[in-house]
Write a structure and sequence with these properties.
The structure holds 2 protein chains of 2 kinds. Chain A contains 11 helices and 5 strands, in the order ααααβαβαβαααααββ. Chain A is an alpha/beta fold. Chain A has a 5-stranded mixed sheet, with helices on one face. Chain A starts with a helix and ends in a 10-residue tail after the last strand. In chain A, 53% of the residues are buried. Mean pLDDT of chain A is 85; it is low at 19-24 and 29-40. Chain B is of the alpha/beta class. In chain B, the strands form 2 sheets. Chain B has a 6-stranded mixed sheet, with helices on one face. In chain B, strands 1-2 form a two-stranded antiparallel sheet. In chain B, a hairpin with a 4-residue loop joins strand 1 (52-56) and strand 2 (61-65). Chain B is globular. The chains are: A alpha/beta, B alpha/beta. Chains A and B meet through helix 3, helix 4, helix 5, strand 2 and helix 6 of A and strand 1, helix 1, helix 2, helix 3 and strand 4 of B.
């Protein structure tokens, strides 16, 4: 009941936001103008946070009190989203996710490691919470162009640089994607291989999701869909695809 | 490759109707994805994938349907999995959240195109500059909770903030070893050279609740394995607020956990060095979505005596409502 009410509110909110944006000048003001005021002015991080928060409060929170009150009681997002920490690719901008819509994980190169309760408890905790507790219906893993993590993976250690303690260890998760791209496209330059690896890493993450028992179960029950995405901010494009695994019947041998 | 107008697929994106049979495998991925067995897989399955592509360009949507590999291999499972349902190969299967399946693709397409039209194209020069490199001034560590996205509540625009989101916005200490959070820290601080790190907690945090509810450190869930990073916050809370209700203790712990994360940030030598030099500032924040208020404070490194105490001094403490 609460969930349906929330869904109704979310769609109502989206409609209002799209209607109201034309009417309200202050909320419609180009966001870039709010960045630290004058272009050459000294950047005050505290002022930046304060202005951003006040804008959110006046343009959204105070205008839709019922919606936010309902949301405060509980969240019922339909999505679990994995996106890169890159400052340019927030799904709240690119796909306009509103408060309450998406439980969102952001890490380097939007990776999902395979099930390992000791080593990767952070990511595992988000999947466990989203799938078992929140019962999200979709998991979306979004890769992107010019990903620093993937670039690092593809060029290290061949480029002879010193290792990064934590980054290189984390990026090892995507090693199968690198090996696949290098094997299948060894005639391509590194620059051409990197975008392929960015997409392969998304596919690898989708496959890794299936190593989590609650994800397997929900996919088999058709209560959960797995989707991959790729945001190309150089060309201004977005790709979206779905993973539909086939599970054969159990044969007892 | 055959290109179809969106309307032919808008009714059902998984349609395998004959009009689509002429489409060929897109070359973007090269060969089809095959399943790799990993050490931890509980079961073996052979997978054939259907790709529904929406390649969204400025004014058109191109839809590609790849027919899945009709053959599949049967592999013996290591454990009984109880999955006896065979998902569709050629047939359309109705999936959940996918009564919204067709709507979902349409919805995402619409949202992306709106973003592209209203923001990307309107500020093309800015986005072109951004595509050449990012130089965010902030790194933000926030909870994965759907209600607290920093892009929404703090209005961070593309290019402004390198964002990490995990359960209960926690930062593990350096000695806990590699994790996704400290990999992101390493990148943001050493490579991007951000000037500010903001750790922002929030009200009614499920992760903190799980931390406060834990019976013992021996556990069996991912969530517990992760939130135990905040065990000092729990100890401090139990000691300072033991006479309060559980709800109030959770609230106290939500803020205490932010402070513990700030202290954990200083366990990374390359972070402490920059904070000491004054090239990096550490901020804590707390967003209360019940009343819509934001508290913010900055760690005062010079004013703190961290060798002798776990407490640190703060400055620029603010409360906005």
């Amino acid at each position: 009941m609460a969930k349906q009410y929330t869904e109704g509110l979310i769609s109502g909110l989206k409609k209002h936001l799209s209607d109201k944006e034309e009417q309200d000048d202050s909320c419609q003001k180009l966001p870039l103008e709010l960045l630290g005021g004058e272009p050459n002015a000294c950047y005050d991080p505290v002022e930046r946070i304060k202005n951003g928060f006040i804008r959110f409060k006046t343009c959204k929170f105070d205008k839709y009190p019922e919606y936010f009150q309902e949301l405060a009681e509980g969240q019922h997002p339909k999505f679990l989203v994995f996106a890169c920490s890159d400052s340019r690719v927030s799904p709240s901008h690119v796909l306009d996710f509103q408060p309450g819509e998406a439980f969102m994980v952001r890490n380097i190169a939007n990776l999902v490691p395979h099930f390992d309760q000791l080593r990767y408890s952070g990511v595992g905790a988000t999947i466990e919470y989203a799938v078992s507790n929140l019962k999200v219906e979709n998991i979306l893993v979004i890769g992107h162009s010019r990903c620093g993590g993937i670039e690092r993976l593809m060029s290290f250690p061949e480029n002879g640089s010193a290792p990064y303690d934590f980054i290189d260890e984390w990026m090892k998760i995507a090693l199968p994607a690198k090996l696949k791209v290098k094997a299948e496209h060894n005639c391509l330059s590194l620059e051409e291989q990197i975008p392929l690896c960015e997409r392969e890493a998304v596919n690898l993450s989708l496959v890794n999701l299936l190593t989590y028992p609650y994800v397997q179960k929900a996919v088999a029950n058709k209560t959960l869909a797995l989707r991959g995405g790729y945001y190309d901010f150089v060309k201004g494009k977005f790709e979206l695809w779905q993973l539909s695994p086939e599970v054969t019947p159990v044969i007892i041998i | 490759m055959a290109i179809l107008a969106p309307t032919s697929l808008s009714k059902h994106p998984l349609s395998s109707s004959s009009t689509l049979s002429q489409l060929t495998t897109p070359t973007i991925f090269g060969s089809k994805l095959k399943l790799r067995e990993t050490e931890q897989t509980r079961f073996s399955l052979s997978t054939s994938f259907k790709y529904i592509f929406f390649l969204l360009d400025f004014s058109k949507a191109y839809c590609f349907l790849v027919r899945s590999n009709p053959g599949f291999r049967l592999m013996a499972s290591k454990e009984p999995v109880g999955m006896t349902t065979k998902l569709g190969s050629d047939k359309i299967e109705t999936e959940v959240g996918v009564e919204n399946g067709c709507d979902l693709f349409d919805e995402m397409k619409h949202r992306f195109l709106s973003f592209k039209k209203q923001k990307f194209m309107e500020n093309l020069e800015h986005y072109q500059n951004l595509s050449n490199g990012q130089a965010p001034k902030f790194m933000v560590i926030a909870c994965a909770d759907s209600r607290v996205c920093p892009s929404n509540i703090l209005g961070f625009q593309p290019g402004e903030a390198f964002i990490v989101r995990n359960v209960a916005n926690m930062v593990p200490p350096c000695e806990s070893g590699p994790s996704e959070t400290n990999a992101a820290l390493e990148f943001a601080v050493n490579s991007l050279q951000v000037e500010n790190i903001l750790v922002i907690g929030h009200s009614r945090c499920g992760g903190i609740r799980a931390l406060m509810s834990m019976e013992a450190e021996a556990d069996s869930s991912f969530i517990q394995n992760w939130v135990v990073v905040g065990k000092n916050a729990r100890l401090n809370t139990k000691s300072a607020a033991h006479n309060l209700s559980f709800e109030h203790q959770c609230r106290h712990c939500e803020k205490e956990s932010v402070n513990c994360s700030l202290l954990n940030l200083l366990t990374y030598p390359w972070i402490e060095e920059k904070v000491k030099k004054g090239t990096l500032s550490l901020h804590g924040g707390y967003y209360d979505f019940i009343d819509c208020t934001l508290e913010k404070w900055t760690l005062d490194y010079e004013g703190s005596n961290l060798k002798e105490s776990d407490k640190f001094a703060v400055r620029n403490q603010s409360f906005w409502c």
